[in-house]
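On clarity, I found the account of how folds are encoded harder to follow than it need be. What matters is that the chain and its backbone geometry are given together, residue for residue. For the editor and my fellow referees, an illustration may be useful. For illustration, here is how one protein appears when written out as sequence plus structure tokens:

___
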Amino acid sequence: MGAVVGLAVGRGTGAELADVFERVLGVLATGVAVERSPRVYDSYFSLRDNDSGTPAMRERTLADAGHYERFCRDLAARGARAVFRTAINAQSLYLVRQRLRAVKVDEITAGLLVVRDQAQGFYTGDNEHGPGIITRTTVFRREITREVLSYAVERARELWPEGPAEIVLAYKFHLLDGEFDRWVREAAADAGVAVRLCQPDTVNRDLLERGPVPRTVIVAGNEWGDIMHVLLLDRYGSRRQEESCTENVYLHPDVAGLTEFQTVHGSADDIAGRGLVNPTATVRAAAAVARQVGCAGAVVAVERALAAVADEGIATPDRGGRHTTTEVVDALIASPDLLHA
């Protein structure tokens, strides 16, 4: 039996992009079975538009999180290495990332690797509601801090055989009584690396003044990483958010080896069903999944095909074109570059 990859579909443009993913992956990686989650997950807007009060919204959020977590655990238990997910409600998503200890990994440039800590901090935690009050409780853990740094160092050494030249951590550590600082110093000493633990504004200032030195790793709290991601893509990676994909690696031992790929853009509920969504990020995600299951040339082939189709003026309206999502994908699949991947 060939490789199995997971597919999780959210509302909004999720159904359209799931079809794009399956079509492109079918060309790049023949013999790969795609297992689609039986549940269609809410986007934030589908939750809001069906709002029946806070308790009902919380119940649906928890139900989505629980189902997607079980889907990922089942895939990992059967040896799957990859799952592609369209955009879903962030609150459900981050509950899963907290439980499965996720990091988001993005090679912004050949010399800049960003690893976002999605397993702790403000983006995780629980809410309590009172009259006119929302109280959010978040947690930092020494074990997770150590795991995230260890993974970032390991990934950097895979990327650069000579090792990273600089490791910077961007966290609001001044708010944590000095304890987080101690954890980082201990973990860095055990890993045998030197790190700079910085406030996010210090990292921003250094990037503006001198840019990243070659072979820089930024390990970031998600509060900083989420805000800065689109700016880093634009300033250093020359990429648009709407056309980018990224990977989330789960560090929990129960799902070790499973990587989730996603588009960077959201669910785009406002254009759902109209054939207007730009498929580029999903196409790139399909290439990344194909590479994950052994198709080494998939990413290069897709980039060549995307460039060729763009040169022919075939694009969705957000890129100044007049073509539908399906027409762009048809052109990509017909491209000789993709056919010879």
Notes: The chain has twelve helices and twelve strands. The domain at 1-101+252-341 is CATH 3.40.50 (Rossmann fold). The chain has a mean pLDDT of 94.
